[in-house]
Description:
The chain is of the alpha+beta class. The protein has one domain (about 5-65). It contains 3 helices and 2 strands. A two-stranded antiparallel sheet has the order 1-2. It is elongated, with a radius of gyration of 19 Å. The two termini are about 35 Å apart.
Amino acid sequence: MLEHVQIIEEQGQAKFAVIDFEEYLSIKALLSEPDKLEDYLDYLHMQAIKKESSKRLTLAEVKQACNL
Length: 68
């Protein structure tokens, strides 16, 4: 999302961001629906955690950690 953004500057400072209209509609829908926004924020959090650690757990390890 937001891979292709054009920044318009005024006096050397970023003033506006121009994005593709389809991206705008996607962002608008995302921000207007709490469940979608929550899912997207969870996705971003998972991506950040993946970058922090390369360790992966097996399903059995997860079940054991959760006492399942």
